[in-house]
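@here heads up, posting the sequence + SMILES for the glutathione run so it's all in one place. Ping me if the SMILES looks off, I pulled it from an old spreadsheet.
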Amino acid sequence: MLSFARATLSSSIALWRGTKTSRLGKRPQKRLHLYDIEGCPYCKLVREAMTELDINVVIYPCPKGGVRFRNSAIKIGGKEQFPYLIDPNTSISLYESYDIISYLFRYYGKGHLPNRWRRRYFNITTSLVSTAVRLGSGIYYKPSKPPTMMLELYSFESSPFSRPVRELLCELEVPYVLHNVGRNQVLDFVLPSIRERIFPFYNVKGKNRKDMVTRTGRMMVPYLIDPNTSTELFESEEILKYLNNKYSV
Ligand SMILES: N[C@@H](CCC(=O)N[C@@H](CS)C(=O)NCC(=O)O)C(=O)O
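bot reply: prediction finished. Complex structure tokens:
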């Protein structure tokens, strides 16, 4: 429970960037790829922008000491630096969080950085403090068994219940398709258990949220899909238990 409280504090320090979707532009046809460290403040900024742009992405976790994707990142990009983005739609690959964020808003937003994203040093500082509050979670490698098929996670960046799940996936170097389901209307802010009872007329908006409801029947994150065991799970505690049992060694 303490971990979720700290995750809430962490998202508050980051001023809940990575919660709501922004004005969207062109949609990527193919999935973007991100070599990422969940607990890295620079990677976090990129994932926040992806939530705001309703962009799904394949995450290759590269925790410190990692043995699975670090080498491929160095082979492809030439540097051991994260975040590292590859966009197969434009054949562009980029290091540097702010270059990536500017690129994403240029291609998949309204063409320019929104004002709140122009405060570069302020955003980097709040991201640094917000990840420090997580006390090193999602940074260091843990020995694990590799999955055969890629997992999928429905999440949005600031979600305090999703954060510990993404941290563990990173530590275990389990790659996954990250479906970012940012909020885009007032009722999205009501807790799902309350919303389902009091607002039965609630209808999701936005492509990624609609896709999630079509696929799972509910709008609640985190939601994990593991095709290796045909497992599908809501509830962060359950997901953490499952991942530890299945992939931790
Ligand atoms: N200026 C870069 C800084 C990126 C950076 O320092 N990333 C760290 C992780 S937080 C890194 O790649 N460290 C190398 C490593 O983990 O091996 C950016 O904004 O993307």
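MO: The radius of gyration is 17 Å.
MO: One more: The domain at 2-247 is CATH 3.40.30.10 (Glutaredoxin).
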